[in-house]
Amino acid sequence: MDELSVAMKARDFIAKCGPLALPVSVDAYAAQVGGTVKQEVLQENEDAWSVRLSNGKYRICVNCAHDSRRQRFSVCHEVAHEVLGIAADHTSPRWSFARRPPGEIACDVFAAELLLPFKVFKPRVDAVDMNFAAISGLADEFDASLTSTGSRFATFSRELCAFVLSEGGKVRYCARSTSLRDARAWVRTGMDLPSDSYSARVRAGVAVSGPEQAEPDQWFEDWERDGVFYEDVRHLGAWDQTLTLLWFDDEDLPPPRSERKRWEEETFGLRELDGKLPWPGKSKRRK
Ligand SMILES: [Zn+2]
């Protein structure tokens, strides 16, 4: 089952649950599958488990030691197991994508749809500024984690942007907007945070001070395009997780440098070079 069909199933499920209020009620989602939610003491890394009882009720047990936003995601994840008919395999950690079974990833996709429903989330993404303060505001509004909110924010943004999750200073996961995917910008999983990047400095203890200008070729593999590029960051010290938002302040990127040379030759080929590049460098937006 691909991610799009999982997302569509989640949207159908949400429609069955009645009008949407924010933040969404995860108890209402559980009730839709005949479920009730119980908080229990579980193992430290265990998010939740669920079972269909002989009386037909669906019991969802979440880890009471986890913060409430993580518990909300876990409830949605358990609802996903029931709706998608996928048996749980909770032996690998949530963010270990390399080892995470496809069924678990499908349930995470479904859960993110439930918690941050496209219909109400996407217009918010389009309305707010591009920075972590805005993502934080959305996370509060939807009562979801900064990580889930940031990941979906980048996925649905119409700007050229990416959300990167690093753990222990290594990139574990990256969500990109459609336009950034089309531009073939790719952050390699497993790479170290660029050594002098804003993200690396914040991880080392430097205070966050709002977005900073950054170098795209530090982040993207084989990148040879210019553009006004920004980085904003949050560090979650308890898990040594660094969340990075990357974006271009351009509607369209200049072509790669190799193509640009050809463009310049074609356009200005007959003109003597005067040392002034005809290529328009800086974005004129938001300035
Ligand atoms: Zn699961």
Quick rundown:
39% of the residues lie in helices and 17% in strands. It is built from eleven helices and eight strands.
Give the neighbour order of strands across the main sheet. Answer: 5-4-8-7-6
Order of helices and strands: HHEEEHHHHHEEHHEHEEH
**Cα-to-Cα separation, first versus last residue:** 44 Å
The CATH architecture term of the largest domain is: Orthogonal Bundle
By DSSP, the count of extended strands is: 8
List ligands, each type once: zinc ion
Note the main sheet. Answer: 5 strands, antiparallel
**Proportion of beta-strand residues:** 15-25%
Helical stretch count?
11
Structural class: alpha+beta
Q: Do you know the CATH topology of the largest domain?
A: Arc Repressor Mutant, subunit A
The helical percent reads: 25-40%
Number of domains: 2
Which residues form runs of ≥5 with pLDDT under 50? 283-287
**Multimeric status of the protein:** single chain
Can you put this structure into words, describing what you see?
The strands form two sheets. A five-stranded antiparallel beta sheet has the order 5-4-8-7-6. Strands 1-3-2 form a three-stranded mixed beta sheet, covered by helices on one side. It is α+β, with helices and mostly antiparallel strands and 287 residues long. The longest helix is centred in the first third of the chain and has 17 residues. It has two domains: 113 residues, Arc Repressor Mutant, subunit A (Orthogonal Bundle), CATH 1.10.10; 90 residues, Beta-Lactamase (2-Layer Sandwich). β4 and β5 form a beta hairpin. The chain is 39% helix and 17% strand. It binds zinc ion.
